[in-house]
Amino acid sequence: MTPTLVRRHLPQAGQSPRTEPGARARDWSEIQERMLVPLYEAVHERLEVGPATRLLGLGCGSGLALLMAASRGAAVTGVEAVHPERLALARQRLLPEGSGPRARRRVRLVERPGDAADATAPPYTLVTAFEPLGGAAGDAERVGGLLAAATPMAARGAAVVLAGWGPPERCATSAVVRVAAGLADPPPGGGGWRPALRDGLEDVALRAGLRPDGSGRVACPFGYASVDSALKGLLSTGLFDAAVAATDEARVEKEVTEALHPYRRKDGTVWMPNVFRYLVARVP
Asked: Measured between alpha carbons, how far is 217 from 41 in angstroms, rounded to an integer?
């Protein structure tokens, strides 16, 4: 299994302030994205991702999950509508300069779900939405909209995978997110960290017209080489953006640093055990 402890993060010379979107995207790609590798691996293994798989990744970020699927032989298409800077990093990772025609036939990266349609290719056999639900208000509705656009492109019986944070008592990171959420002005409809509901993923699937077909739980500890690395990684998730907007980055970093204290080990590393849940649903 790929290690989740980020051993080192060296600031680049002349790097822009962390609030600059490109810097946040780099922090996501270099530090945070790999924390969910155990989830990606578990899903790929369970669904036997391989050369026969045509995968559509919703909210693909900087493309690590797609890269892992492609390494198993899958043809992959990634959609990233919210974070264009992450999508640019995904292109560097999956379609580096000089990529040949075969690579470009097996990898597509687009900004909108509709752009993932390809009348010349077979339907998708697997759709993934790996960004965990249960971390922010409105995330279920946003993913529901993506599913509505994506599932018509999937084959009948295709698997659709949704992911969610586990119960707060099983997710050490939830305590850290709650601290920062208290600094933010409540958004419409409530906000901040909200406990994951037992049937939350099933509800999203059913509203999208999908048929639940099994689930699993995966341990995804968040491990960082230092508190500074933890701050960069956590702030890159977007879960703290409302707190930064309502106060300032220095205030949020101070509060998060204090909340990280129970998870700091003697060698200065930070280790937070978490459990994530995934649901496999099927296109009728």
From this structure: 12
